Fold:
Amino acid sequence: MELPKAFQDRMRALLGEEDYEKYLASLDRDAYSGLRINELKTSGEEVPDRVLTSWERIPWSPNGYLCPDEDKPSEHPYYYAGLYYLQEPSAMAPASFLPVDPGERVLDMCAAPGGKSTELASKLQGRGILIANDISASRIKALQKNLELFGVKNAAVLCEEPSKLLPAFAGWFDKILIDAPCSGEGMFRKKGSMPKFWLEHGPDYYAPIQKSLIHTGADLLAPGGMLLYSTCTFSVQEDEEVLAELLASHPDMHLVPLSDFPGREGGHPEWSAEIPEALYEELRLPARFFPHRLKGEGHFAALLKKDGEAPDRADSSSRRVKLPAEAEEFLSELTWDLTGYEYRQIADRLYLVPTGMPDLSAFRVIRCGLFLGMVKKNRFEPVEALAMALRADEYPRHVSFPAEDERVRKYLKGETIDLLPGEAPGKGWCLVCVDGYPLGWAKCTGAQLKNKYHPGWRMM
Structure:
């Protein structure tokens, strides 16, 4: 790999010759792969035991596992059931480090493609509100799909420049995650195109963007709230200097320690001539990941807390919404707990939305809450997102096949499924599952399942 000379000179000066040679050697190894369990649907080691030939726990992610290079977990039916997210191990750190509790208001400011948002939603356990925002319209579809695949009910997906959130949301969020766009120095091993990209858009380009984002985040944060700032770069200009400017301008914000793990490096404020020594001790609290010291790519993460007491918030009461008869008939069969949620209809689309969801009419909203289905003349058609948010026992007509059953892959490819005697759950809409985990919908005719799996989600 050919590294930019300016980058080589800086890294050699920062690390010293011996450590720099170890760093260079690490770039010749293939990047590590990781799998993170969706704790909205499952927990423990049963899934990695079924999906991976062997595994190793990721020290900084309680539900993360290193995958062997030869395994292909993206081809397993459990991936299509939303039981895990495939993610580079170091990239699991930001959402893992942000302490989120059920019921809180959470913002993922730069959310696409959804790895962080799915973990934050998992921590919320269906209670509270997640606003997943990303400025990139081209990346927002992946974010939406991943939230739907994970069965997330309490999220809104926005496509906005973050500062536009301030008039409506100043001081509103309990927790905020900013995985900021950066020069990508930590991704050189994983993405061979990054060194060339670095020459075009290096630290000088990104530092002003990052400072704007973190200042916006501080203003959006409620008293007593916490903000996690992260990048995938080694640059002190994009890391410690961004934090130092925030601390100087926001005396109510303070860095707090992160958990320790093997290979963890602290912050290095001494690498910068711009940072006053009075901030050195505090700026050593973040965590920096080097690829030659742990099994992951380069990363940086810092946790900040805002002074003050968290505001008391009254519980929002649900509004009784009259549903169309077609939808009422279908939804009345569901046995899920709707405490803290309400139905909303927009034209012919029906949604389930947390009762505390704010008015988002001023923003570009891609999705608000859980998309349930389409209200059509004389019928209601459930969509994939609803299937993924259910447990098998929450819908009366369901059929479950073992992961090894060839009919699972046929279903995921959009084919009609033949049922054996005694397997038919009854005529009408049927929830198709693998080992008890929902995959999607079908129409049961008695001896067959007419496939209704989302065409855009099908296995190739």
Observations:
- The radius of gyration is 24 Å.
- The chain has two domains: 5-306, 391-460.
- Residues 203-220 form the longest helix (18 residues).
